[in-house]
Amino acid sequence: MEREPSASAAAPAAVAVLFAWGANSYGQLGLGHKEDVLLPQQLSDFCNPECIRRITGGGGHSAVVTDGGGLFVCGLNKDGQLGLGHTEDVLYFTACRSLLACPILQVACGWDFTIILTESGQVLSCGSNCFGQLGVPHGPRRCVVPQAIELLREKVVCIAAGLRHALAATASGVVFQWGTGLASSGRRLCPGQTLPPFLTAREPSRVTGKALIS
C-alpha cells in the first residue's frame, strides 16, 4: 500500500529560467554572439536565474540585478555604459566587479548611459555624458566606471532613464531630473517660452510645476 506524501514535506523549489530574444547587434541579449534572435533562447551561462531581481535594457545594452545586489551587464559599451572600466562590447552577462562591495537595488539604462541605485539610496552613473545625462556637470564626456552623483544628497528610492535624461525620486517624495534630452521637445511644444530648469539641467534639478511632456 502506497503512503501519501507527508503534509509537512517541503514542496520542490520552483526553478526560474531566463530567456532573451530580439535585436542583438551589440550582444545585448547576452547569448555570446551578435545575431538577431527571432525566438526566445535560454541563457544557460548566466548566474542562477532564481536570484534575479530586475532586468532592464537600453539602446544597445542590458543589465540584471540579482537578489543579492549584484549587477550583471552586457552589450554595447562604446561609451563605457556597462561600467566595466573599458569600452569593448560584451557578449555575455558579466559582473560589474567595481560594485561587488556595494549592493545594488535598481538599474535604469538610457540610450548610451546607465544609472545605478544602491541599497543605501545613493545614485551612480556611467557611460556618455554629452547631454549631461550622468548628472555630473563638470565631469568628462564619458565615464567607464560608475561614479557617484554627489549633488543628489537625499536618499533616493527609485530611478528612471530616458533617451538622454534621467530621473530620481527621493524618500521625501521629491523628483529630480537631469540631462538635456527633452529640451528640444520642450522648445517645440512651448515656442518662445522659457523652459523649466529641470529640462535643461546637466545636474540634478528639482522637478516643479506641471509637466510639459507626457
Automatic annotation (TrEMBL):
Where does the record place its RCC repeats? 16-68, 69-120, 121-172
Q: Which InterPro entries match?
A: RCC1/BLIP-II, Reg_chr_condens, Signaling_Regulatory_Domain
Per the record, the domain of life is: Eukaryota
User: What are the alphabetically sorted keywords of the record?
Assistant: Repeat
State whether keyword Oxidoreductase applies.
no
* One Pfam family here: RCC1_2
By what name is this protein known?
Secretion-regulating guanine nucleotide exchange factor
Origin organism is: Gulo gulo
Q: What does UniProt list as this organism's lineage?
A: Eukaryota, Metazoa, Chordata, Craniata, Vertebrata
